[in-house]
């Protein structure tokens, strides 16, 4: 602000210059009065303008603060909604994977129980067949032994030698048949065990493959979600707790190795 001082001339006061008369004094007083009124009006106008400028500055500051508060609230809402959506997606993926794994495990368990039941039935049938063959062979041997004993009693010495020979042949035949029946039972049991183990390994490999692919899809879905969030929001808007999770690299699963019997 600039201050101007005006001095009003009194009656009888003359300047150093030569006086021109009473009219000059009145003119100078009127000019000083008008200048004083103009200065006061200018001061009032300047004060009013300063007050209006202060009011405008306050209004602008309130509007800027309101806009900033609204933007901050909207940013917090977007962050919370994205975090909730990510948590809900992770939970739904986990539930879905657990359901698929449970279904695969139940299917494998049912197949294993069915194969065990079939193996038990086949083993029982094989044992019944072997026992029937042994019983028939033993009955036949008993009949031959009884007939040989009867012939021995009837024929005497020569017949005794011949009967011993026949008994030896029958006993050897019975031993061969018994060994053959045991070998067949052993081979059948080994084939049944190999078949059951092969089916069990096949079911286990199927279950491992399903679990591996679902885990791979989960990792890919998480990486796509992190990429989408990272592309949608700049780095300065990330929460400090989300920085390690969003900036982590994509996980790579090791290749699936199949188990062979």
What would you note in describing this structure?
It is built from 3 helices and no strands. With 261 residues, it is an all-alpha fold. Helix 1 packs antiparallel against helix 2. The two termini are 101 Å apart.
How much of the sequence is in beta strands?
under 5%
- SSE-based structural type: mainly alpha
Radius of gyration: 57 Å
Overall 3D geometry? rod-shaped
List the uncertain runs.
1-16
The number of distinct β-strands equals 0
What is the N-to-C succession of helices and strands? HHH
How would a crystallographer describe the biggest sheet?
Answer: none
Which bin fits the share of residues in helices? over 70%
> Mean of residue pLDDT?
79
Task: Report the span from N to C terminus.
Answer: 101 Å
What is the overall number of helices? 3
